[in-house]
Amino acid sequence: MNKQDPRVIKTLRQIDEAFLNSLKETSFEKITIEMICKKALINRSTFYKYYEDKYVLLSDFLDRTLSEFREYAKVDFVMATPYNIDGEIYQSIFRNLIQHVYSKKDTYLVLWHSNLNRNVWLEMTQIIQKRILETLNSTSVIKPENKIYLDLFATLFASNLMTELEWWLKNDSTITLDDLMRIMTRNMKHGIFKTFREYF
Question: Which residue blocks in 52-176 are alpha helix, DSSP H?
Fold first, then answer.
């Protein structure tokens, strides 16, 4: 199979879209190959040319989705201070990540809320957490006794970031990208308590 062949690319894209649309409508366990083929406008033999079964399709789809997310999960903004987080260098990193997540809104929301054998939201959180640890460990000297706090910071920050992104995707008709950027920046400047007390 030549994955560069436009016909192959088109067929694989049709299968992906059919699979995702099926997940929107029903649980993974109830999805059948016949259902995917019908939505993708292909026959069963075409499906089996690319995937052994729906479990292989799921694993491949998730691996590709997470690999793409990993490319955009730049976290250099954790090196900012409350005084320079407004700088364009840090804001552009925030913005690129947010725009990527928005471009995949339908995919992410479906995967986050489907009953799969993998927790996609948690895996994405762990990608960010690992990136934060790598970034901070590579650019600063941390005393051994303080390493335990670094892990807590990375865990809290990654969970906070993913929670904000998910909340925004569910409320993007009311909350703009600039609103989200402002919240994220304030959160880094002032902390969660001070940031949100002005709203209630």
Answer: 54-72, 88-103, 105-113, 120-139, 147-170
